[in-house]
């Protein structure tokens, strides 16, 4: 199988937007342009990211052994990924032994079908949801809606996004692009159509907004018979699922409904209960900058009582989601992205995310981690996916803060190579060689020409002297044509010097040394 | 002591004054400088844009040019990081692609001998006061690859703080990228310019007359924005400040 990638092989939906359709999801530079010019959005993002960034730095600095925790987290994840088949089977056994039912979903469509059938079998037409990236990735809410089931998001920020018919723009704080006034307006306009309306005269103080959401959600928690969640971790040896959260909505969804369905990416498994020790320290500090998150819910199947005492769900289903993950695992550079624990520290520290905002990334996974996950999960065929690996200055701030040490710049450069040169990738378990993405022919030619020039010092010197001659002739362009315009739109060109360094050296310091120099003192031209 | 100067293509073609400053500074400190003329470019533009294979001939050229030199000094954190971090990676990738270990051997042989200028001054020569004179208010922008890949830490600032007449002021948000990012500057021009504008706002807020850096490519971006606005703030490479004396002031 060989061919140019024409579209996403793996469904990675934004809710309501199934494919990275070029009309809706243009290449990153175009998508970012709007956000850069939106002063209010820039201010919201700057304030929010800098606040959490600084808090994270303080929370991490408190731990003397942070570097060791980071290395341990990386090592545990790598070891698990190396033996993923074994740990997943062990997990299935443990969950089943504890009274749960395990389902395997190769892709988004299969996962959506499994969950939809499970919900319909209960006879219910409403579900409450814990914040979950996996269910957003597969577009579960939309699939349920198509089957006549309404999914209510119960995380405050997810609620804001859902009520606002909006798209999430951050992994942890999906409504980070909204300010208090906008949230108040959304609550006033939309809450009544979904359930309990916003209180009369709702203001925009955080306490008022949180109380409005609490009242609105309370009736959903008490009524719902089906809860849907993801999980931050799954323990293979015990079958224990772990959800970390801040608001208590997760605890409600995980304990009140009769049926609990968890959709979890296969990379979330860890071998032993003890491994949680690392991540329960690194995840809260990296994501919300807290020493410990307010709610950590752990459950093992139906528990020892198998739900018989009426405490907790009486049915638990675990849907293990692949959706492109084993294909990523086949790539020796790209696979490190599977270590991700979705903390979002890389988003908060990224200078590009801060200016471009989350929507520009055209995926439920924005920011630096999104720029390495989306083109691996969806392929590099669409304009947005081919441009995401370039949505970074490679400044390395993301790698520095990553609690599992994903070298995001390394993966970005690796994916850039895939975009411009093509190469071997794995799609649905089959090794294929893809051709380069469209639109890089001129760049490829320019890079090759530059290399040919740079591989010949005398040719390079001739070029440098042309620059100096241009200076003497007074040629000082302020606007360049073609791709150079992107430079001169905002910046002057560097002023050409009177002579290149190598000419100064030849004149002032005599013959160049070693390695077969052709320079001689007083030389006036390439030999 | 003898060192080989790896001037870098950007400095050779566009900022020769930086190369000249490195030569004068090192000679003043008693170090003999060679300039192997076979050197051109480390290949970072190709590598970071996704053209790893186009960068390989430049790896071979650079390794050959500096063969036998125990100390290779470069006034660019970014190019030093390319050689130290990415050359070995390129070698390993070539080996993994079944093309033998020759490239890896060249890369691994060169990488540990390459020093960024401030690193060489502080770690190898053991100096922080280089006898410079520069009577201006200066702030320092630590470029990302020097800061994070090489871990230059406070070396550049210690060198600047020891310069006679120089008042070093803090740059707010110093560790944030300036938005250059190589081909990022032209592939994502809007975000790049927005980042540059924020960096310049911080630099002006610092009260500095001179925005100093250790990478002229970042300074080309920031300086180009300043000159477009006729801003009195100017950019200058740290080598030119450290080379400056009472007798010999920089441009």
UniProtKB/TrEMBL annotation, chain B:
Cysteine-rich domain mapped to chain residues: 3-83, 138-222
The organism's place on the tree of life at top rank: Bacteria
Protein name from the UniProt record: (Fe-S)-binding protein
